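In this supplementary section we document a worked example of the pipeline. Step one takes a protein sequence of length 294 as its only input; no multiple sequence alignment statistics are reported here. Step two produces a three-dimensional model, which step three serialises into structure tokens for compact storage. The input and output of this example are shown verbatim.
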Amino acid sequence: MVRMAGENRGEPLGVEASLRLIDLEENGDIALAALEELHKTTRSGRVLFAIARYRYAVGAYENAARDFRGAVGGLEGEKQEEARVWEGIALHAAGRLDEGIALLEKRARSSNGSVAHLARLVAGEIRLAEGDARRCKSLVGPLLSQETIYRRPVILLAARAYRALGERDQAESLFRELVSQDPETAEASAAREHLINLQSTGQAEDGWYIQIASFTSEENARRFLAAKQREGIGALRMFRVTRDGETVHPIRIGPFDNEEEARGAKDRLAGQGIEGHVVDVPAIDGTAATRSDQ
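The serialised model returned by step three reads:
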């Protein structure tokens, strides 16, 4: 690699070899100094892009945005578009919020492939953080049906947007997709937390449920819920019920349309070693008479 860099000094092959050598340097200050020296002799957009990435990594966002912008003229094709996207990211990080998001959304509309996907993903994250879940959905929703290297982050962000918009079924379906397909990833771990929160409500929907446990401690209820979810039990939710000044957290499966359907499901669960009893909501959570198995 050293020989290649020396024999091809100033040429694209030599620049690439030099960049790879610098990337091996563990000391960031030394690496940045080497990149700046390389840029003086090559004026390469590729080198300036690498400098901008270093500046962004250490929080020098204004300088990073400047260098990303400067690198555009020395790059071509997708790499040029990537520099424009990163300029938008750096501008937003630097506090120039409107400029940053405007540039990102422009690139989301005009770029193609993975660069456009990155722009949509980052812009969607920003919009959701601003409370604009609908705009977030419009940015990342189209990516759900496309092949993308950002598949897991896209699914997680889209699910969060659906949840914020009150589209519970769509959100839960996407969260479950992450957990089932990529269970060991960071996105799956986040999806599990979202599922627990999604399935933890203060008031149950009316209908028939199978109650399989109840806890006075919310923390213990959450642990139990997470364990049962890992076992693959579906439609499982935690509720918060207060009666006579005491709060409990029942874990229930449902709702079912009628008592007969709930009892049939209860019998099937019993065959799997999961015991529970059928309850009628709101009767059991309100002041009406409780209807349950005896």
